[in-house]
């Protein structure tokens, strides 16, 4: 016994799941030794299971009753344990404790989650700022910046606070706030947000919102509040626990009074112990999670699939979710007789090959894919921050950039590609030897599987919604091609969160699917958040309940259908387990069942529940 207590003390020093698994293994072995009498021990080996698995259940039940009068399933389990021990049915007590702890372990494994998202958001907050005062630059902590201070931001640095550009031109990566895949050109008078990244030219700005009022800090608070406000599903075993306890105690007391046999009363408590009821939900969830994993989903929240089964709307971010998130050349328009469209494309690719701008890289990559050739050599390359590029190739001066570049270079132009602009495309204008030559059109391309996926989701009775930080033209164009009726464009993180909050308050639970940092608050607030694990940011993945590891959005309808099937399986498990319990009670009242046989009968029900749940592992909805 001393050796056993020393080993127990060592086990208690272990932590988390490792300790739980070790306790269950030892308890299971002890029950096998007990029922087959394998070892000549001075005590019943079932007592090992009672101590390791039963005492924690009893302590938790007592603490819940004393501190909050909280009646859960473990109250009835505790009564069954104590009653069985009192009449000498040690094996029945140990076996019930073992089954209940096994169910608890399965549930704990399904609800494990990571909370690193908020920490990573905090790391995005700029730490320092360059303050200009009387012509002198001083680096200070970002939290010391005051409204009205003049700041300088160099290429590659994060904008420390919200403000307005005073001098300089650049392009700013605003993905952290809007999710836009392309940098946005900025000039004097334009606003910039904290946490966004200056791509190219240096600029000076005046601070407008600092500290807790800055954009990045507001988003951190949004994620925190959304996480705190998400209600967790309470297990049905605990929801029904009060009624189960009352019915079980009443039946046991009446049987004892009428029959005068306490063993019948104890048998009622044992067979009414909700083992199958407790196992009904976590086993189905574990099996469904296994199924989802095979189809590329990492389920990070145990009850995420339960919640997913109830959603009425699925809100999609556009860039990187419904689209590939990478712009491609979709059209080349030559407006000069001096060069064909093929020659114009070649000149543009040559001019952009040394550019670090995503649009320039997209032109070069598209040229290589479509022609199989590398662009020609250039000389005299110059980056024009916020405007475009300039270079020489084959003795010709090539200018590639936006309309402002043509206007500043005093190059007249006529066709500005307005039809493409109205569709949300990006247009790069080209001039050869300072004569307007035409333009190249780039657009984010829709994933090939997006259209079929949207149709399949609609057939399941779930309404698709588009929530995007892109402008209306781009949003409407994508929504039109995918037949999405509800569209919300120009959305900041709080706009997405507010839409989801309003929908859910109106009784329409929302599943949010996104990939960017700006989607994190919405992913937290939604009934279920699904992040694109491949192209998505770490912060989006941490904020989500489910991650789509390989970005195969075509599997989303399967996940929805699986969640609904899982809930059907859970309801069948619960109905079966409760029916079996009431049948066993009737047999216990009549004295047909004793505690040990009763425990075996109702544990046979637990096995059948597990088998039924296991069918979910390979389930797939027939087409």
Termini gap:
61 Å
Radius of gyration, Cα only, in angstroms?
Answer: 32 Å
The side-by-side strand order for the widest beta sheet comes to 10-22-21-20-11-18-19
Mean pLDDT: 80
Using the alpha-carbon principal axes, give the shape.
elongated
How would you characterize the largest beta sheet? 7 strands, mixed
- Number of separate strands: 22
- Estimate the strand proportion: 15-25%
Provide a compact summary of the structure.
The chain is an alpha+beta fold. The protein has a seven-stranded mixed β-sheet with strand order 10-22-21-20-11-18-19, with helices on both faces.
Give a verbal description of the structure.
This protein is an alpha+beta fold. Helix content is 51%, strand content 19%. The chain contains 25 helices and 22 strands. The strands form four sheets. It has a seven-stranded mixed beta sheet, with helices on both faces. Strands 2-1-3-9-4-7 form a six-stranded antiparallel beta sheet, with no helix packed on it. Helix 2 runs antiparallel to helix 5. The N terminus is likely disordered.
Topology:
Blueprint lengths: L1 H11 L3 H21 L9 H23 L4 H14 L3 H21 L6 H8 L3 E6 L2 E6 L8 E4 L8 E6 L2 E4 L1 H4 L5 E3 L4 E2 L4 E2 L4 E7 L5 H15 L6 H4 L1 H19 L2 H10 L3 H20 L2 E3 L4 H5 L4 E4 L1 H5 E12 L6 H12 L5 H14 L7 E6 L3 E6 L2 E6 L1 H6 L9 H5 L3 E7 L2 E12 L3 H10 L3 E5 L4 H11 L3 E3 L4 H13 L4 E5 L5 H6 L2 E5 L5 H6 L2 E3 L7 H34 L5 H20 L9
Parallel strand pairs: 11-18, 11-20, 18-19, 20-21, 21-22
Antiparallel strand pairs: 1-2, 1-3, 3-9, 4-7, 4-9, 5-6, 5-8, 10-22, 12-17, 13-14, 14-15, 15-16, 16-17
Helix pairs in contact: 2-3, 2-5, 3-4, 3-5, 4-5, 4-10, 4-11, 5-12, 5-25, 6-8, 10-11, 11-24, 11-25, 12-24, 12-25, 15-16, 24-25
